[in-house]
Design brief:
The complex is a heterodimer. By secondary structure, chain A is α+β, with helices and mostly antiparallel strands. Chain A contains 5 helices and 5 strands. Chain A has a 5-stranded mixed β-sheet, sandwiched between helices. In chain A, helix 2 runs antiparallel to helix 5. The N and C termini of chain A lie far apart (about 50 Å). The longest helix of chain B is centred in the last third of the chain and has 19 residues. Chain B has a 5-stranded antiparallel β-sheet with strand order 4-5-10-6-7. In chain B, strands 11, 12, 13, 14 and 15 form a 5-stranded antiparallel β-sheet that branches. The chains are: A alpha+beta, B alpha+beta. The structure holds flavin-adenine dinucleotide and FE2/S2 (inorganic) cluster (2 copies). Flavin-adenine dinucleotide sits at the interface of chains B and A.
Chain lengths: ~160, ~290
């Protein structure tokens, strides 16, 4: 048995199933079979973070993550972050701080910021830059991104 | 990508049985961060991958030996687990410092200690550090179990002494009283580039004297390489500026660094002299 295989997983809180070819990456499966384009491949080698996906709560590069490994896992993408029409406070903060131009890198930055703030609720610049070192923004919105992270941190702390 | 099979055994015995083939297209996979890149580039076309992720116990855990003389790190340990382990933080603080400039959160969440060693890429940061710490690995395969020094794992550019069908199960780092260790890496363009050079040093100070020392050069040669002549210059001596300069010269002479797109041989020899001095000074608190 060495062809495609069926996997099941939880996708943004709902049960999901896919038929996955050998070596297919998680980002390809999400894009091609679920029309989820928030995680998108850019560098294709783990460096830029545009393909960030949460697997069992941990951030991974979807471009290097074998989709077969997602069998049985809980997968979360940017599409599952908002609560219906209400944006997540991190998404609001990115909008308010103008933390993007083209927006291509934004889903990755936002998911990484979620993990960053879970680990460091009140991060300083160094912590932010270090945690996000593997996320690249071609439009170089870095100052605004750092500001957005701080704004989101404050909001989330205030909300308790 | 060509068709291949993925097996996800839940025990080491099962994994070994699935790997026991005279076929280099049958390989173990840890986190897959290195393998996926090679597969996407079609450098490597597997017929079967044996995932070690579900093997559990035999490849997992981080434990102190009963007499406290060494730390065992399961080969399936991810870099994030390594970084967050209180035992590693306490006994091998150098590892936490190396992690600060190693890849990024997402890669560290997935990449494993065993995959990092077995990959045999000379540019990786941890292998020279493990060598400077005099670490060893347990390897299990068709011809039984053996323990070998991490230094003996590397044979050349992406070449290791692992035979087909062999799996690294654990790493052992001896814990030496008063030993300090540090690693410096130099990238020449962006910080996430592969380094032009890495220098890992562990030493035991006795007042101003360097009682014992290990120096390992990474990235600049086809495999991480111990610099024993430079060690001999420094061992048993006070770490004065003149001696450090001599050690730097000796280090540059004992290896044959070649030019590549990360820098000329002359430049990298210069870096070696400077960074060896810096790391030793830092460790001696001067
Ligand atoms: C974007 C990016 C940035 C990176 N930056 C850095 C950096 O700054 N510094 C650095 O040092 N590294 C860096 N790396 C490399 C990273 O450290 C390696 O890719 C990783 O350590 C490999 O581990 P893995 O578990 O993913 O290996 P895998 O890809 O699963 O396997 C690698 C090799 O090891 C074999 N293997 C795996 N496990 C075992 C085992 N237990 N026994 C025997 N063989 C085994 C496989 O068959 C394969 O040949 C980076 C990687 C990426 C993608
Ligand atoms: S596309 Fe995956 S990290 Fe850049
Ligand atoms: S906003 Fe364009 S890449 Fe970041």
């Amino acid at each position: 048995m060495s062809g495609p295989r069926d996997i099941t997983f939880t996708l943004n809180g709902r049960p999901a199933a896919a038929t996955v070819k050998p070596g297919e990456t998680l980002v390809d499966v999400l894009t091609n079979q679920f029309d989820l384009t928030g995680a998108r491949e850019s560098c294709a080698q783990g460096l830029c973070g545009c393909c960030t996906v949460l697997v069992d709560g941990d951030a991974v590069s979807g471009c290097l993550y074998m989709a077969w490994f997602a069998d049985g896992a809980e997968i979360n993408t940017i599409e599952g972050l908002a609560d219906g029409n209400t944006l997540h406070p991190i998404q609001e903060a990115f909008l308010e701080a103008g933390a993007f131009q083209c927006g291509f890198c934004t889903p990755g930055f936002i998911l990484m910021t979620k993990k960053l703030l879970e680990a460091h609720p009140d991060p300083d610049d160094d912590v932010i830059r270090h945690f996000l070192v593997g996320n690249l923004c071609r439009c170089a919105a870095y100052p605004e991104i750092v500001a957005a992270v701080k704004l989101a941190a404050r909001r989330l702390r205030d909300a308790g | 990508m060509k068709n291949f099979d993925l097996e996800e055994p839940e025990s080491l015995a099962e994994a070994l049985a699935l790997l026991d083939e005279d076929d280099s297209a049958v390989r173990p996979i840890g986190g897959g961060t290195a393998l996926m890149l090679m597969m996407k580039a079609q450098f490597f076309e597997p017929t079967r991958l044996v995932s070690l992720r579900k093997v559990g116990g035999a490849l997992g855990g981080i434990d102190l030996s009963e007499d406290g003389s060494s730390l065992r790190v399961g080969a399936g340990t991810t870099f994030t687990q390594l970084q967050q382990s209180p035992l590693v933080q306490k006994h091998l603080p150098v590892i936490g410092r190396v992690m600060k400039t190693l890849a990024n959160v997402r890669v560290r969440n997935v990449a494993t200690v065993g995959g990092n060693l077995a990959h045999g890429d000379p540019h990786l940061d941890l292998p020279p550090v493990w060598m400077a710490l005099d670490a060893a690995v347990d390897v299990v395969g068709p011809s039984g179990e053996r323990r070998l020094a991490v230094a003996d794992l590397f044979q050349g550019y992406y070449e290791t002494s692992l035979a087909d069908g062999e799996v690294i199960t654990a790493l052992y780092a001896p814990l030496v009283e008063d030993r300090r260790a540090a690693y410096a890496k130099v990238t020449t363009r962006a910080s996430h580039d592969w380094p032009a050079l890495g220098v890992a040093v562990s030493l035991v100070p006795d007042g101003d004297v360097i009682a014992d020392i290990r120096i390992v050069l990474g990235a600049a040669l086809d495999m991480p390489t111990r610099l024993t002549a430079a060690e001999n210059v420094l061992r048993g001596q006070p770490a004065g500026d003149d001696l450090l300069a001599t050690a730097g010269e000796t280090a540059a002479e004992e290896v044959d660094i070649e030019s590549d797109h990360r820098g000329s041989a002359g430049y990298k020899n210069h870096l070696l002299k400077i960074y060896l001095g810096r790391v030793v000074r830092e460790l001696m608190g001067r």
